[in-house]
Design brief:
CATH superfamily of one domain: Galactose-binding domain-like
Helix content: 10-25%
CATH topology of one domain: Jelly Rolls
Shape: globular
Distance between the termini: 62 Å
Radius of gyration: 28 Å
Strand content: 35-45%
Largest sheet: 10 strands, mixed
CATH architecture of one domain: Sandwich
Length: 625
């Protein structure tokens, strides 16, 4: 019965194919070791312009089948889909001989003109990278979307096991991953960067700032563009948008909907990429397309230079500088170090800080990917939080963020985590980036060195790459803790070999702020003329009041200005949408009030944002019925 069902389903599939005016051929291509790989070949019905170049994907999935009619009938390529030989991604990826043998077999067929290109996204993008590692003669170009290039960095960022994603996707590899929890020659074999200096293939890399595999596409671009083999070097392009892994072609990411300009037409770009390299269409727009396209994110609903694309032809960039903030006892991120200071918290591995958004994987954590509001975990007793003052100019965080931490613990091992957020006027704490490090691997993921209880250690947390604008009226926030679960496996704090612990211990961890042991947030920023000085304190915070609050129909916001200045008073709903502008004018010093009529609005929580002299104060209002 099962066989009959499969035959009927396959027949229905073939009937569907006929409607699209292309034919399907099934072959088993023999590899050098005698294994024959199941391969589907899709050709246009119209053969008048044969032979044609081939676009190949190596994937055990139907995800890309919607591309078949476009590729064959419209773009005039032969489309090939080949099953990989097993679910063991490790050896299938790095052992590129299957891809090599397939490319050479295809190039010898009479319907192929000898030119082959490959594409793929996520793990199937890994096979596209892998196809270039052995440099088959007839592989002309590659297009890759959202995939890692270094297995260890993917499985153990900061030395910490990426629990949720790895356990979901890589059941076959789990025993090997757990055995090799520090970097070694075993992992060296599966690090594609080690092979890039011999790769000769032009590659178009697509990625997202909130993608599971960020920043691999940036790293791959850099290594191949400047250190790849002849043919690859100087022939790479990369696009990084604000997207998450499962919505790489959308302007929706987490709880933020970016402007429509965030969407890039990947299909149009990669077909032009293939046309350029395989059809000799040297006059198409792809030759002049920027080598590097990066989306500069920022708060939506506010206008400015952010939420637009930045383009470059060379990296490293020459228009960057460094901004350093120092957390302090008063919960401020300051431009100056304190003379001394520290804060401690108890990290209980039985009650870890839950993961809320971020660079999570496909179908894990309830599809909670991308920028999420962190308020639910911001004020836990095991989370230390800090925020900058308001500044009267925007500044663009642009590059790889680092947090240099000075810490101690009463245990021989623990983790330290960090989150960077944009604090909105309405109170939201929207995630920009986060990172983690395991104390025992602080001096390198290739060496284990337990810590001595009570001693102070320096370690550096990698908070990944970003391009993000902090605008007037917003603050930059930093949270430091010791867990982000279940994205990362919780540290039992025992110092025992990983995955073989016999107990779970509470750790008292201390972060230091002063002098030569000052924890430091290191931000690369664009040189836009920004000078970080606090805004003029024109609003008297102690004299802002709302009455009545809660209110049923209308209420009054009272405020005082210490100095005359331009005043903006706006109201927002819980999603950050502007619902009313109450004041937008120059006002003299003294007492003022503005009346808000809530008629026609649904009951709920609203926020006011009062701004003068670029300083912003905000508060909560509750409308009841």
């Amino acid at each position: 019965m099962k066989t009959r069902i499969l035959i009927i389903a396959f027949a229905a599939f073939l009937i569907t194919l006929e409607c699209y005016s292309y034919t399907t051929e099934t072959v088993y291509i023999e590899m050098r070791d005698g294994v024959k790989l199941y391969t589907l070949i899709f050709k246009p019905d119209d053969t008048s312009d044969f032979p044609l170049p081939v676009i190949m994907i190596r994937a055990n999935t139907s995800t890309y089948d919607t591309s078949i009619p476009i590729t064959t009938d419209e773009q005039r390529y032969i489309y090939v889909k080949q099953a990989i030989r097993s679910n063991d991604l490790l050896d299938t990826l790095i052992n590129g001989y299957d891809a090599y043998d397939t490319v050479e077999w295809l190039s010898a067929q009479d319907w192929c003109d000898g030119d082959i290109g490959t594409w793929g996204g996520s793990r199937f993008g890994a096979f596209s990278y892998g196809s270039s590692l052995k440099n088959p003669q007839h592989l002309k170009c590659v297009s890759v979307t959202t995939i890692f290039i270094n297995w260890y960095d993917y499985v153990y960022p900061g030395g910490c096991f990426r629990k949720n994603d790895i356990e979901y996707f890589h059941q076959n590899e789990l025993p090997s991953f757990k055995e090799h929890y520090s970097y070694s020659e075993w992992w060296d074999k599966y690090n594609m960067i080690n092979y890039f200096d011999t790769v000769r293939t032009p590659i178009f890399h697509f990625g997202g700032w909130y993608d599971l595999f960020a920043p691999a596409q940036l790293d791959a671009f850099y290594h191949l563009q400047y250190h790849g083999g002849e043919g690859a070097r100087g022939n790479q392009k990369v696009i990084i948008g604000p997207q998450q892994h499962t919505k790489i072609l959308s302007n929706e990411s987490g709880q933020i909907t970016f402007p429509l300009n965030a969407i890039f037409d990947r299909n149009a770009l990669r077909y032009k990429w293939f046309d350029y390299w395989m059809k000799d269409q040297k006059d198409n727009m792809i030759a002049d397309y920027p080598n590097i396209s990066l989306y500069l994110m920022g708060p939506v609903g506010e206008t400015g230079h952010w939420n637009n694309w930045l383009t470059y032809d060379e990296w490293p960039f020459t228009d960057t500088d460094t901004l350093r903030f120092y957390p302090a006892d008063n919960k401020i991120l300051s431009l100056e170090k304190d003379a001394s200071g520290s804060q401690s918290f108890d990290f209980d591995p039985n009650n870890p800080v839950p993961t809320v958004g971020g660079n999570n994987g496909f179908y894990t954590l309830g599809n909670q990917e991308g920028p999420y509001d962190q308020r639910n975990v911001w004020e836990r007793p095991d989370v230390l939080v800090f925020e900058t003052p308001y500044y009267d100019e925007s500044y663009d965080i642009f590059g790889n963020i680092k947090l240099k931490v000075f810490m101690s613990s009463d245990r021989t091992d623990t983790d330290i985590t960090a989150k960077l957020v944009d604090i909105y006027p309405d109170g939201r704490h929207m995630l920009i980036n986060d990172g983690i490090i395991m104390a025992r691997l602080r001096n390198g993921v290739d060496r284990e060195e337990l810590i001595t209880p009570g001693e102070i250690y320096e370690m550096e947390i990698d908070l990944n790459y970003t391009a993000y604008t902090v605008v007037p009226g917003h603050k930059l926030g930093l949270a430091i803790s010791s867990s982000n679960y279940p994205r990362y496996r919780v540290n039992p704090n025992t110092g025992e070999p990983l995955f073989k612990e016999t107990e779970m211990l509470i750790a008292t961890n201390t972060i230091y702020f002063g002098g030569d042991q000052a924890t430091e947030l290191i931000l690369p920023i664009r040189k836009t003329g920004f000078t970080p000085t606090s805004v003029n304190d024109k609003i008297s915070e102690s004299n802002i009041s709302i009455y009545p609050n809660p209110f049923s129909q209308s209420t009054t916001i009272n405020y005082e200005l210490r100095e005359a200045g331009y005043v903006s008073l706006k109201l927002f709903d819980m999603l950050g949408n502007e619902v009313s502008v109450l004041v937008d004018e120059w006002q003299e010093a003294g007492r003022h009030q503005a009346r808000f009529d809530g008629i026609g609005l649904p009951a709920g929580v609203y926020y006011y944002s009062l701004r003068s002299g670029e300083r912003v104060e905000s508060g909560k209002m509750i409308l009841i019925r």
